[in-house]
Amino acid sequence: MAQRKRQTMVGEVVSDKMEKTVVVQVTRKIPHPVYKKFVKRFKKFNAHVESVDPKIGDIVKISALRPMSKTKRWRVSEIIRESVKIG
């Protein structure tokens, strides 16, 4: 049986106040149907955190997994870029 590749997305962590969950905002750029200018669209996903420890502002890759709760269907698979602390 061939194993399917899981869906992945890249987004920014906007909240890490929960214990084993972070909120990741994914940005898409789509062309406007009439004016053809690219418009940003945002969507937030709750993602499960296991081994990695992302902070607010980090860019992370999330991958799909089985439903873990009412809203959690994603897992943080890796931290792509850490946020920069100023000061």
What's the topology here?
Blueprint: E1 8-15, E2 21-31, E3 38-48, E4 59-64, E5 72-81
Parallel strand pairs: 3-5
Antiparallel strand pairs: 1-2, 1-4, 2-3, 4-5
Please explain how this structure is put together.
- This protein is mostly beta strands and 87 residues long.
- The chain has a single domain (8-81), classed as Beta Barrel (OB fold (Dihydrolipoamide Acetyltransferase, E2P)).
- Strand 4 (59-64) and strand 5 form a beta hairpin.
- The chain contains no helices and five strands.
- The mean pLDDT is 94.
Describe the structure concisely for a colleague.
0% of the residues lie in helices and 53% in strands. With 87 residues, it is mainly beta. It has a five-stranded mixed beta barrel.
Number of discrete domains: 1
Please work out how many helical segments DSSP would assign.
Answer: 0
- Helix and strand content put the structural class at mainly beta
In whole angstroms, the N-to-C terminal distance is 53 Å
